Each structure stands twice: as structure tokens, then as C-alpha cells.
Amino acid sequence: METFYIVTLILTALILLAAFSSLIAFRFGAPLLLLFLIIGLVAGVDGFGIEFSSNTAAYAIGSIALSIILFDSGYRTSPHSFKVAAVPALTLSTVGVLVTAGLFGLLATLLFDFSYLQGLLLGSIVASTDAAAVFFLLRIGGINIRDKVRSTLEVESGTNDPMAIFLTMALVGLVASDEKAVGLEIIWLFITQMGLGVLLGFGGGYVITFIARHLTIDRGLLPIVVLALSLVVFAFTGAVGGSGFLAVYVAGIVAGNRKLPATASISRFQDGMTWLAQIIMFLVLGLLATPSDFLVILIPSVVLALFLVFIARPIAVWLCLLPLDFTQRETTFVAWVGLRGAVSILLAILPVMGGLENGHIYFNATFIVVMLSLAIQGWTIKPLAKALGLIVPPRMGAIEKFELDLPGTANHELLSYRVVAGSPVVNGERVPRWAMPSLVIRDGKSMRYQYAGRLREGDHVYLFIAPGYSRLLDRLFAERTTLAEDDSEFFGMFTISPARPAEELDAAYGPHLIAESDKGKTIAEVIEARIGSKPEYGDRVRIGNVILIVRDTDDNERISAVGISLEAVAPATRLPIFLNLRELSPAFREIMLRVRAKRRAVRAKVKEAEAAKENAG
After folding, report:
1. At residue 553, what are phi and psi to the nearest 5 degrees?
2. Rg of the chain's alpha carbons, rounded to an integer?
3. According to the 3-state scheme, what is the secondary structure of 590-614?
4. High-pLDDT (> 90) share of the chain, %
């Protein structure tokens, strides 16, 4: 019995230590998930001496934790984000994973004296980006970048895990049976797993929504029911031969974008459970590793990690985004945000469980690759986004807002705002009556809004509003911001009314900027047509040598202000890399012109030298 209490004490102490390490991460910008992993290593057999060697238990714990993370990732992904990013993200999560695994496998074959099938297996293990790492850095790390780029990275990280898992499992079976070719049965298995994953994910998401809406249960239990149902979707899909990880992610997207009771409670509960799942998964995988075994393969593993970060991932991303309208800077950023994490280490357990020869090499090499990826990329993502000019200037300052649940199917939302310094309501602007302000908490005392007088900094205001109107109030309660130093650089030096005819651009900056199909449209309509979806703050559209930038949108999500930049954004590099097909043609043409000019210069010098010899003779 004493052993039980000691083990419980140690495990909870590790979880608390990992949770408190977030203070270091937020203070110094350290990759938080790397700290979780290091804590597990330090507590393990080569550190404090905690011995944990059960690969089966580690894989089971990691799989359940990953399913929780993926469900929450899908739950927080809006249909708009998926629509904007579907094509590039799904291309990256399929073709990108294959290209990354193939390139990585080639080098692994040389460095570890593997067969190519064995090298491809190691490449498949590290081919997927980590959803937990990407979501943490983009959503919690304060990196506010263009919606298309952010959505692409988030959707990719949520959808490429099933592809990597499928490849790894298939290749473990092939290597174990010493088969040399991939048959049609592998292709059929892929179609079956992904097809069932999508179908059962959609079905499971609607079942979760139906049960959550019609189940009469204590509100404190509802988040637990939703999470348990998501795990049912994961387990059932896997049991019938589908991809449970893909199914739980799709179920999260479906359930997260349907109106559920106690939405705020569900979100808060899932937020806590996701943090707990990340901590447990990284700690368990850290405990499973034996750092003293790393030394034997340290040098080739470091070479592989650098190859993955600087060559394999960038090439895969460039090939996938080549036909799409991503700028060089955006492609550069997507290529860099390819963090590897717990999923790769989790997959590295499979060769060991499958009894493959030198299975420990797969695990140890993957562990080193993941740690270097988190260290190199995790620490540099925000500085790189700034250097590339992808940080979108904030349109409003600090705001503290809380959503409170109303019972049943109420047609109003109850919001609570904390009044911050510099907000319009502090400066005398009144809250509109349609917002139905009800209560003000000031200095710990409650009073009716009508008797509170002018709102003060630190007040908490409670309001009932109709769904969809919170954006109007956000601006009233948000701190006013001054224009960022790079505001004009990002949005351009000039502004133009989005209601103006697009043909005016021809007259001012043309000729022949506007296509025949766009004549008769307004500037806003041209931008919306080029974007192909709902316009977002900071969206950019290039028309010839003119760049139109969405400076703001109104409460109906229509473009209300447009900036103009007459100078193309400076390329991330002068080399002809990370360009899309539209940009490659003039780039190669310019290179060929330079090459021909140099050739002509060389030939002219040769002729001059020959002429000088003849004259001397």
C-alpha cells in the first residue's frame, strides 16, 4: 500500500512540475512541450531513477492522450478555417508526408546502413507535424498571422497524423515480413482506413451533438459525456478497421461547429483535459527513453534532424504549395513550422513492439530528432514571423471577456466584460440598450447598471445579447491601440474605399490591371472573389503590381477599409525557391537573362583577347 502512495505522489509531483514549468515557457519563450519532455527524461532511469519500460502501456496512454488532443483541435477549428485551408492542408498532410518520409528515408538509409524500406519507416515516423506543438505556439504563443497561413498549419497538424500512423503501421508489417513491394492491399487498406475515419467521424460528430442537445443531465457532467463520446468514436472506428485518430478529429469539427448547450463549460473542460493529456503524454514518453543510449547514434541523428528541418520539410512544403497562391514569405513560414513532437515518439514505439531488429534505433533516433525540432523551430517561430512581415498588426487592444452558459436553448448569450484602461466605455461611450446591460460589479459590490453611472477601470459588466453581436461590444470594451510602427508597411501607404469601382485601379495604376470578368465590380467584390471565402482582417490580394489589403471588416463581415501597397513585398530570399508557379516564370526568365548577359560578356572578352593577340602578331 505504501508503494501505491509513493507512486501516486511521484506522478502528481511530476504533473505539477510540468504545469509550473509553463511559467518559464511564457516568461522566456521556451517551447513548453520540450520542457515537458525534458522533465520526463530527468525523472527517468538516467536521472532520478524512475524506471518505466512498458512500451505497450506508453503507446496506449499516448494514443488516448492524442485522441483527446485531436478532438479538441477539431472542436476549435471553424468551418471557415477548414474551407480556407482545406486544399493546401490536405495536400500537405498526404503528399507532404509522403515526400518528407521519402527524402528522410534516403538519408537514413545511408547513415544507419538500413534498407530503403527501413529508412522509409524511420521517415514515416517523423513525417507528421505535432498538433499539440503547432496549436500551442500559434494560439497561445501570441503569433497573430494571416488567417490562411494559420489555418493551413492548424488543419495540417490535425490531419497528417492519421497518414503518418497508417504509413508507419504498414511499413512495420512490411519490414517484419521482409516484403519488398507494396501491393494493392496496402492501397486498399489506406482507402478503407481513411474512408471509414471520415464517415464515422462525421457520424460520430452528429451523434455527439444529438445526445448533448437532448440529454437531460447535470451541466457539470455534460463535458465529461462529450469527451467520453469522442473516445467512443475513436475506439469504435479503430475497432472496425478505420483511422480512429482521423475520426475523432472530424467528430470534433462537426460537434464544435454545432450549437451545443453549456458550450463555455465544454470548452473550459476540454482546455484543461487537453493540457493534462499533453503533460501526461510527454512525461510518459520522456520516462520511457534512456538518454545514455543516445550517444551511440547521436551524430547521425543530429544530421537527420537538421536535414528534416532545413531540407526535407521545406522541399515537401514547396512542392505541395507550388500550384497555390502562397507568397514566398508565407511558404517559407509554413515550411519552418513543421515541429515534430509526441506523435513521432509514439510511433517510434511501434517498431519495438513489432519486434523489429534494431527497434531501439528507431526510438532513440526519433527522440533526438523531436528534441532538436522543438528546440530549433519552437524558439524561432515568432522571430521568423516578425522577420518575414507576417505578423498582422492588432486591430484592438486588451480585452477580458467571459461567456456564461444559459440553461436550455436560450436565444441570448450572457457575457461578462472586465473594463480595461483606455477602452471607449471608460472614456464615456455608452453601452447600447440592445445589449441589455444588467449588472455591474465594482469593488466587490454589485449594483444595477442603471445606477452604476460612468463605468470605471476594473468594473465587471454583465450583459444579455442576441447571438452574433458580441463583436460590436468587443470594440467598446477593448483597449484602444496606437498604430504599430509597421502598420503602414503591412497595410500600405494609401487607403481606398472598398465601394469604389474596380476599374478606377486601371485609371490610377494601370493599364490592364482589371480583368474583363472583374469590370463592373467594386474593389470589395474583386477582393472577395479572389479570396474565395469570407474576407478576414489582413487578407492580401495581388492585382498586377498593386497589392490590396483588407484593413477592416464591419459587423456583417463585409470589407469596410482597404489599404494599397504599390511596391511588391521584398522576397524572403533572392534565390528562386518557395515561389509559386505564377511567380516562377518571371523569376526563371530573369535568371536566364542574367545568364545570357554573362555569357555575352564572357564572349566579348574572349573576342577582345583574340583580337588583341592578332594585332600583336
Report:
1. -125, 155
2. 28
3. HHHHHHHHHHHHHHHHHHHHHHHHH
4. 29
What is the rounded distance in angstroms from the CA atom of residue 402 to the CA atom of residue 400?
7
More confident site: 175 or 99: 99
pLDDT at 184 over 80: no
pLDDT at 125 over 90: yes
- Quickly name the fold that domain 400-477 has: Alpha-Beta Plaits (3.30.70)
Residues 556, 538: Cα–Cα separation, whole Å: 17
pLDDT digits over 40-56, tens only? Answer: 898 888 888 888 889 99
Same topology for domains 2-48+56-387 and 400-477, yes or no? no
The b/e string for 409-442 (b: 16+ C-beta within 10 A; e otherwise) is eeeebbbebbbbeebbbbeeeebeeebebeebbb
Residue 176 is which amino acid? A
Residue showing cell 514571423: 385
**Crossing angle between the packed helical segments 116-125 and 359-378, to the nearest 10 degrees:** 40
What is the distance between the alpha carbons of residues 563 and 495, in angstroms, rounded to a whole number? 4
Class of domain 487-565: alpha beta
- The fold of 2-48+56-387 is Na+/H+ antiporter like fold (1.20.1530)
Residues in the chain: 617
pTM assigned to the model: 0.80
Residue range 409-462, pLDDT digits in tens: 556 677 788 888 878 888 777 787 777 888 888 988 888 888 888 888 888 888
Contact 137, 30 (CB under 8 A): no
Q: Where are the domains of the chain?
A: 2-48+56-387, 400-477, 487-565
